[in-house]
């Protein structure tokens, strides 16, 4: 068999999964030696990764002016980076979107590898908040439910930041 006999989509899926699994393997091994320091380092790395979402979305000409646009763009780009995310919007207005994420490959693959999933929450939060805020700095993302903490799904809220006006 030649590599040309393997469809590009299958090759890409294999490469993406292996790359993701290697990163998890490194994380697990480093955590055993440098737990707290590696956790902070990982969070910083994933936060920087999230900031790249703006560049990816821009190159694909994806909109990010309203909460529904930001949520859809976030999901599209996140699904490229981390295939296997399944989400449905449960509430939506111009400035706020609530989405129920029922499948996350990072969480399920971490479980399949027998690795702890609780450390995913920090990097997930860092990546996603920075991703949304890079798409539109007037918006942010928070999670009210998380599969990595034992919930049956994640609940993502993309909403306009609450600005405080300082009166003198």
What does this structure look like?
The protein is α+β, with helices and mostly antiparallel strands and 168 residues long. The protein has a single domain, classed as Muramoyl-pentapeptide Carboxypeptidase, domain 2, CATH 3.30.1380. 54% of the residues lie in helices and 18% in strands. It has a 4-stranded antiparallel β-sheet. Helix 1 crosses helix 5 and helix 3 (67-81) crosses helix 5 (120-135). The model has no long low-confidence stretch (mean pLDDT 86).
Q: How would you summarize what this structure contains?
A:
The chain has 168 residues and is α+β, with helices and mostly antiparallel strands. It has a single domain, classed as Trafficking protein particle complex subunit 3 (Muramoyl-pentapeptide Carboxypeptidase, domain 2).
Report the uncertain regions: none
Mind telling me the CATH class?
A: Alpha Beta
Helical content band: 40-55%
Which structural class do you get from the secondary structure elements? alpha+beta
Q: How is the biggest beta sheet arranged?
A: 4 strands, antiparallel
CATH homologous superfamily annotation: Trafficking protein particle complex subunit 3
The beta-strand count equals 4
pLDDT averaged residue by residue: 86
Topology-level CATH name: Muramoyl-pentapeptide Carboxypeptidase, domain 2
Tell me what the CATH architecture is: 2-Layer Sandwich
């Amino acid at each position: 068999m030649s590599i040309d006999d393997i469809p590009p989509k299958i090759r890409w899926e294999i490469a993406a999964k292996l790359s993701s699994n290697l990163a998890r393997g490194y994380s697990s091994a480093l955590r055993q030696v440098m737990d707290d320091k590696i956790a902070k380092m990982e969070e910083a790395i994933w936060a920087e990764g999230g900031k790249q979402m703006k560049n990816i979305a821009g190159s694909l000409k994806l909109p990010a002016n309203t909460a529904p646009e930001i949520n859809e763009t976030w999901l599209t780009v996140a699904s490229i980076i981390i295939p296997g995310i399944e989400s449905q919007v449960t509430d939506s207005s111009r400035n706020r979107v609530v989405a129920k994420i029922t499948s996350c490959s990072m969480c399920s693959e971490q479980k399949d590898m027998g690795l702890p999933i609780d450390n995913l929450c920090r990097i997930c939060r860092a990546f996603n908040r920075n991703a949304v805020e890079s798409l539109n700095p007037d918006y942010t993302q928070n999670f009210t439910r998380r599969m990595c903490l034992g919930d049956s799904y994640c609940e993502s809220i993309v909403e306009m930041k609450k600005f405080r006006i300082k009166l003198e």
